[in-house]
Amino acid sequence: MNPILYIKNANQVVTVSGASVKPKKGKEMAELGLIEHGGIVIGGDRILFAGPDEEAQAFVNDLTEEPIVIDATGKLVTPGLIDAHTHLVFAGSREKELEMRLQGATYIEILEAGGGILYSTTQTRQASEEQLFEESKKRLDRFLQYGVTTLEAKSGYGLTISDELKQLRAARKLNESHAIDIVSTFMGAHAVPLEYKSDPEAYIKIVIEQMLPAVAEQKLAVFCDVFCEHGVFTVDQSERILEAGKKLGLIPKIHADEIVTFGGAELAAKVGAISADHLLKASDEGIARMAEAGVIAVLLPGTAFFLMEEPADARKMIEAGVPVALATDRNPGSCPTESLPLIMNFACLNMKMTPAEVLTASTINAAHAIGLAKEIGSIEAGKKADLVIYDAPNYLFIQYNFGVNLVDTVIKNGKVVVGGNDRD
Ligand code: IZC
Ligand code: ZN
Question: Which residue of 112, 198, 305, 404 has the lowest C-beta tally within 10 Å?
Answer without folding.
Answer: 198
